[in-house]
Amino acid sequence: MKANLGSRKSVRLQWFEQEKVPFSLKYSLGHSYYSTTVMTNELRPQIFQQYVFSGLETPIPSTNIILFEEGLPQSYLKTTGSIGKKFSTLETVSSDLTVIDRIIKVDQGDEKITKKPVSPHEANKYKELQIHERQDKISRKITIKNETIRPIKELEVTFIENKEIRFLKSNPPAHESDPPEYTWKLEIPAEESVIIELTIEYYFKHVYKIEKEEKKTRFPA
């Protein structure tokens, strides 16, 4: 795709105007789960988009950008300026794609309970600490729909592990695996959807403080 770079009519110096500049529209989804979200039935993460221009003849300054299509304004964007022969707009939330992330299955692991003494300053109130640990296997389905009437060719989905959530497998397999990041590079035809099925491991840990039983005082009859 190519675009013409123009300036506002109020700008006298139009030295950065250029025609037929190659550009691409890139979409990205960075996705993670946490203890507060991994068991949620449905999530709707946001996808971001960014325009990347290349082959510049003259540098582009830091500026606001109005994107026109067929003579009508479509987007209000911003760039921090060009680097070499390239420049990109800042990422914005995209309405071209919608995401629904649903839970499919939960295989609950066996719970392990260990006991530990409490710290000295709490020993007068608590008897012990009980540590409950479990590893659950969770399957989730991420459906990404192209809401536009044109194909989307550059969508990058990245799943990021953390200390509680670990990646096990996916369908389709990730195109790039560099733990803790797993990346899929996708294309979506107009008004169609793609699906990523994830199997992850959730390490559950909770610590309970067990209070001491109150001693009953006996009084003489």
Supply the key terms.
221 residues, 8-stranded mixed sheet, elongated
User: How many strands appear in the DSSP assignment?
Assistant: 16
Q: Which shape, going by the Cα principal axes?
A: elongated
Distance between the termini: 97 Å
Fraction in helix: under 10%
Overall mean pLDDT stands at 86
H and E string = EEEEEEEEEEEEEEEE
The computed structural class is mainly beta
Number of helices: 0
Q: Which radius of gyration do the C-alpha atoms yield?
A: 27 Å
Uncertain runs:
10-15
Question: Largest beta sheet, briefly?
Answer: 8 strands, mixed
Percent strand equals over 45%
Structure, explained:
This protein is an all-beta fold and 221 residues long. It has a domain at 2-8 and 15-98 and 147-193. The protein is built from no helices and 16 strands. The chain has strands spanning 2-5, 18-31, 42-43, 48-53, 63-69, 72-79, 87-88, 92-93, 97-107, 112-116, 126-146, 152-160, 165-171, 176-178, 181-188, 193-211. The strands form three sheets. Strands 1, 2, 4, 7, 8, 12, 14 and 15 form an eight-stranded mixed β-sheet that branches. It starts with a strand and ends in a 10-residue tail after the last strand.
